[in-house]
């Protein structure tokens, strides 16, 4: 491969590498298994990086591989600077970074600053007494006079967010599992420790970070109760869903920590910093965390990840939340990730999945902002129905059958359709393969020039070839129940028009003039009309 000639290396020099980047998320447990133990690992990722590079993406984001008891599969970190043996060693990570960089790929990793594992040495020391050196590194509080928890806060995974600990005769806060005690990021020493963690990985060649659950990083020190949310039509399957979480997350002092952290990252050059921000106030917080040049570069929320349907109005509203204005941040978009059901299973009937997958991919890569592809999304993988006796996700087990369905989106990548292990590396993987995925395997689609895999490569190449699509402004010109049309305009004034028919019936497109240069199209396109699930990108 001639890396210098690859379109991703022809981006405008004036922009940092991450602006308009396409980022490929890897869930390490499920990508490729190099040692046959049923769990994907770092050497497995390294061996398969060619597949990712061939897509034409700019960067990989590797979900947690840190030392962990795996109660939440790596998001319960017991050593922020260590590699869990199930994934390999620090030397394996260094080899992954070296290979990625040789292929022209930047490397991003997760940073989990809101909590640790209860097996972390910091927590072991903190819980041992009320007067040790790390006594205040976690969120501890006395019981109320009747012995009940200090506040009404609820955990994301169900039940109170407080756990009694007899060693200190106090409760500790856990916004997620009880095995994930919340760090007290109000404490300057804890902030120093987290920034030191970032330095450790930067020194190993990391090019960017995705900050997990960042709006959970600080709590209200007064421990005030959360108010209830007003009634709505949204389903409520957990106690967490009944509260307006204004006191156990979203504390205003998070911004001060972000500015400290960003100063360190900016001192290292073009390091990309992206926050994950969920919750009822995510739009406000994403704007706040990315405001100006002293904070994070980008953020992404859950606009699409749990949406039951992909509609023009949903897209238009999401775009409107990120105005192209001075001081406003740069968005990142994900239709799928490791925490949400596969998008095609949420958004398209089985008979429409093939054309819809092509429309969905084109839309994601035409939006203003960074595009995040979750592993297997380039293959059109669907959600796998995991039987109860094979579930491993603690959230799914606790809330069965009304779960977030995370296990079904984390199944192993299908590399070779007719191999017993789908070339994943083990015949008995930690989660079962999806039976529908055999026909979608990498080798099958690689041999079919009309496959979604090849389509994804074409769309990414188009994005890199058109400055208007990579980093230009966006203006939505039409959004109704069926049709979405928007314009992307480059700094040089080039205009690219993107039109999408979200329905199974044809639709007339008044903005579709004859004789324009068509850059890419999918589905049936006729004069002034888009066929079912058809989409078109043309030069204005």
From TrEMBL:
It comes from the Bacteria. Its EC number is 3.2.1.20. The keyword Isomerase does not apply. Pfam families: Alpha-amylase. The keyword Transmembrane helix does not apply. InterPro entries: GH, GH13_cat_dom, O16G_dom_2. Keywords: Glycosidase, Hydrolase. CDD domains: AmyAc_OligoGlu (cd11330). Residues 25-410 form the Glycosyl hydrolase family 13 catalytic domain. Gene3D superfamilies: Glycosidases (3.20.20.80), Oligo-1,6-glucosidase, Domain 2 (3.90.400.10). GO terms for molecular function: alpha-1,4-glucosidase activity. It is an enzyme of class 3 (hydrolase). Belongs to the glycosyl hydrolase 13 family. This is Alpha-glucosidase.
């Amino acid at each position: 491969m001639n890396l210098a000639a690859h379109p991703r290396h022809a981006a405008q020099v004036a922009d940092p590498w991450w602006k308009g980047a396409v980022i490929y998320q890897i869930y390490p447990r499920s990508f490729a298994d190099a040692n046959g133990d049923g769990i994907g690992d770092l050497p497995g990722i390294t061996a398969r990086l060619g597949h990712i590079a061939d897509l034409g993406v700019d960067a990989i984001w590797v979900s947690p591989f840190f030392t962990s008891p795996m109660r939440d599969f790596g998001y319960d970190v017991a050593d922020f600077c260590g590699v869990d043996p199930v994934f390999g060693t620090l030397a394996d990570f260094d080899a992954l970074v070296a290979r990625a960089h040789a292929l022209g790929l930047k490397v991003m990793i997760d940073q989990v600053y809101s909590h640790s594992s209860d097996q972390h040495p910091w927590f072991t020391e903190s819980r041992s007494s009320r007067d040790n050196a790390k006594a205040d590194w976690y969120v501890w509080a006395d019981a109320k006079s009747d012995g009940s928890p200090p506040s009404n806060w609820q955990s994301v995974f169900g039940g109170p967010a407080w756990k009694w600990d007899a060693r200190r005769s106090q409760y500790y806060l856990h916004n997620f599992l009880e095995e994930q005690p919340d760090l007290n990021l109000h404490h300057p020493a804890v902030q120093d420790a987290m920034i030191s963690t970032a330095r450790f990985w930067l020194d190993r060649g990391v090019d960017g970070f995705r900050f997990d659950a960042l709006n959970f990083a600080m709590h209200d020190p007064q421990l005030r109760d959360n108010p209830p949310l007003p009634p709505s039509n949204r389903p409520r399957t957990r106690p967490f869903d009944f509260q307006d979480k204004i006191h156990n997350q979203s504390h205003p002092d998070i911004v001060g920590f972000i500015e400290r952290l960003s100063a360190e990252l900016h001192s290292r050059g073009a390091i990309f910093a992206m926050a994950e921000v969920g919750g009822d106030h995510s739009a406000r917080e994403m704007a706040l965390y990315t405001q100006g040049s002293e904070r994070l570069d980008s953020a992404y929320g859950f606009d699409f990840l749990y949406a039951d349907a992909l509609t023009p109005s949903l897209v238009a509203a999401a775009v409107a939340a990120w105005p192209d204005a001075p001081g406003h941040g740069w968005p990142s978009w994900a239709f799928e990730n490791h925490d949400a059901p596969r998008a095609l299973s949420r958004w398209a009937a089985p008979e429409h999945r093939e054309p819809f997958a092509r429309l969905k991919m084109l839309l994601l890569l035409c939006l203003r902002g960074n595009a995040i592809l979750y592993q297997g999304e380039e293959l059109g993988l669907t959600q796998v129905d995991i039987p109860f006796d094979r579930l491993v996700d603690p959230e799914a087990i606790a809330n069965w059958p009304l779960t977030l369905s995370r296990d079904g989106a984390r199944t192993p990548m299908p590399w070779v359709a007719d191999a017993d292990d789908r070339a994943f590396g083990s015949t008995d993987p930690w989660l079962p393969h999806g039976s529908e995925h055999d026909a979608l395997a990498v080798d099958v689609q690689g041999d079919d020039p009309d496959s979604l895999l090849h389509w994804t490569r074409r769309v990414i190449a188009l994005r890199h070839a058109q400055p208007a699509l990579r980093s230009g402004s966006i203006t939505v010109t039409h959004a109704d129940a069926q049709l979405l049309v928007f314009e992307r305009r480059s700094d040089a004034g080039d205009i690219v028009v993107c039109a999408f028919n979200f329905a199974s019936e044809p639709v007339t497109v008044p903005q579709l003039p004859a004789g324009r240069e068509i850059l890419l199209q999918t589905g049936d396109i006729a004069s002034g009309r888009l066929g079912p699930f058809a989409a078109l990108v043309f030069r204005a």
